[in-house]
Amino acid sequence: MISAVTCPAGQHLRALTHMVSGVQSVHVTSPNFLTRCPAPHQEGWGILFSHPRDFTPVCTTELGRAAKLAPEFRKRNVKMIALSIDSVQDHLSWSKDINAYNGEQPKEELPFPIIADANRELAVKLGMLDPDEQDKDGMPLTARVVFIFGPDKKLKLSILYPATTGRNFDEILRVVDSLQLTAYKKVATPVDWKPGDSVMVAPTLPDEEAKKLFPKGVFTKDLPSGKKYLRYTPQPE
Ligand code: BEZ
């Protein structure tokens, strides 16, 4: 049922749907997912994140945190969708546990849909399986993969954690902030950057252009090499 993850009215998941074309047996928890896609003219980002298995401890903490942070992703115009190799029924039942873990009503609904890739078709196609983590039948589980798509429908970032290490969703939001800033401004974000910190002027931008583009000033750090490549500017609006 490929239509479950296609989003004809939206843009940002089209890259994903292109990748999964031909997949036969993917289902999703939210039947109204299609109607919640942005209109074609809207700029939207997308995040697809997989977890190894429903009803497991680390996954429960991760999806609980993702649910709590859903308003932050929405603010950034990032549509969320999760994936694992469990059934829709398991996803719905596990959603109650996740909501209870979050201290909320144990309802069968999360702020994002979960793809039920029970036959691992999508996981295989997207390289999400971790051969070292297996279920009781010796079948590989999905790793903790994150794919972020831009409004141009291209993959902007992928990260992969093993099953035994939970992700940091604050870091994923920070990455979204960096991806969105650097998509629109000629800057790059340095190590440990947080929104509001100074950023680096893109190395390809000539000094004269940088001065015009960043009226708050460009500050160059002197280095033993004499090369002027460490150019900072306050985060542009
Ligand atoms: C977990 O979510 O706790 C988990 C899942 C698979 C392997 C190890 C841990």
Question: Could you characterize the architecture of this molecule?
Answer:
Pfam families: 1-cysPrx_C (PF10417), AhpC-TSA (PF00578). Its EC number is 1.11.1.27, 2.3.1.23, 3.1.1.4. One of its GO terms (cellular component) is cytosol. By secondary structure, the protein is α+β, with helices and mostly antiparallel strands. The protein is built from 7 helices and 12 strands. The termini are far apart. The protein has 2 domains: 13-182, Glutaredoxin, CATH 3.40.30.10; 185-233, 2-Layer Sandwich (Antioxidant, Horf6, Chain A, domain 2). The chain binds benzoic acid.
Summarize this entry quickly.
The protein is built from seven helices and twelve strands. With 237 residues, it is of the alpha+beta class.
At the fourth level of CATH, the homologous superfamily of the largest domain is Glutaredoxin
**CATH class categorisation of the largest domain:** Alpha Beta
Helix/strand/pairing class, anyone?
A: alpha+beta
Distance between the termini: 43 Å
Secondary structure blueprint with pairings:
Blueprint: H1 14-19, E1 27-28, E2 45-50, H2 57-68, H3 70-75, E3 78-84, H4 88-101, E4 114-116, H5 121-125, E5 129-134, E6 140-142, E7 144-149, E8 155-161, H6 169-184, E9 187-188, E10 199-201, H7 207-213, E11 219-220, E12 231-233
Parallel strand pairs: 2-3, 3-4
Antiparallel strand pairs: 1-4, 2-7, 5-6, 7-8, 9-10, 10-12, 11-12
Helix pairs in contact: 2-4
The structure holds benzoic acid (BEZ).
